[in-house]
Here is the input.
Amino acid sequence: MLKRTIVTLPGDGIGKVVLEEAIRVLDAAGFEAEYVEGDIGWEFWCKEGNPLPDRTIALLKKHKLALFGAITSKPKDKTAAELAPELQGKGFTYYSPIVTMRQHFDLDICMRPCQTLPGNPLNFIRRAKDGGVDEPVIDVMIFRQNTEGLYGGVEWTNPGDQVYDALMSHPKFKQNFAWCPRPELAVSTRIFTKKYTTRIVRAAFEYAHKRGFSKITVCEKPNVIRETSGMMLKVAQEMSKNEFPHIWVEDVNIDAMTMWLTKNPENYNVIVAGNMFGDIVSDAFAGLIGGLGFATSAQFNPESGIGVFEPTHGSAPKYASYDTSIVNPIAMILSAVMMLEHLNEMEMAAKIRKAVAEVVAEGKVRAYDMLKMKGSPDVVKQGAASTRQMADAIIAKL
Ligand code: NAI
Ligand code: MG
Here is the structure.
């Protein structure tokens, strides 16, 4: 096997802990790689006034693939106060290193899987017809457009003349918002481009095709948000007609989706959505399969091949300083598995997935979240597995 170089971006707090465990699992599965660590996160904001230093961007550009833990970000007042004294008042502004990384490398495709691991005590259950309990098997991949839409950053408070005049040229604006004093007006745009809408929709179709699913679900709101949601639905319908006639397009509004997914989550396998609705629907689905200890994501650019694989949880600062870490490493480990799949190391990926599934199914080794305990340093004494013990149990199965 080719020896690869992988950039590790541990970041802050528990990001550092879970990433280390994921690498132990990759090693144990026989993945041969050299790991180079990139600086990212709060520490580098405080020390250098930049949470994503240029040298980290250069590393990622060179090696293309990264495993990312989590970063800490803090409210505005703390951001300024924690900057090194010699850097204060020098015009440094904090920005999210994750969003910056996404935009810099145009990581437009985000995949967020939500798949039931049988035996996980956190799995969603519902009342069955006979009054008993029913546990649907969930197998969903959410394709979230990762760079545009409501998170595109094109927004104003108290917009200037050009923007205001342009808004006033729209009859609806004139009719409904002209009464508002300009300084009291906040505008965030939702921009979709056909190029990137097509790319995320295509990624969803290709995945559905590969997995043998006969449907993709567009999760937007085209009846109200006619231009942008409407564009995504139309792109999907045309792609179905012209390129994937064996896969049909289901149109489910985002609001309805959040209702349906607790009624019949097993009816969905491939969902595609814009940036914000994709964020919402993936968090909602993640809650059905165990939440933050299990939710993973991959973001990549299909042209450059640059990809970042990460759990969706944050740095959980309240657990970061524990002598024995208690957080569940499975989300990070499964993110590393997504990287293997991206590299087409399917056998190795399947081996780790199987090991994780076996540990969860057996139920002998469970992190505090799986035991529904309140997080505290005592949980290990009360029978919860530590972060290390969870990873060890998975490694033992390999
Ligand atoms: P969080 O995800 O760090 O933690 C929320 C809670 O979820 C934790 O207190 C813990 O109870 C639980 N949790 C998280 N990860 C877990 C795991 N692996 N196993 C078991 N339980 C787990 O989100 P929070 O507290 O809102 O934010 C903390 C910091 O993380 C903030 O500075 C925030 O900005 C940042 N953040 C970073 C993200 C990233 O790097 N991708 C994403 C979300 C938040
Ligand atoms: Mg989210």
Residues 155-188 form one domain. The mean pLDDT is 96. DSSP finds 15 helices and 14 strands in the chain.
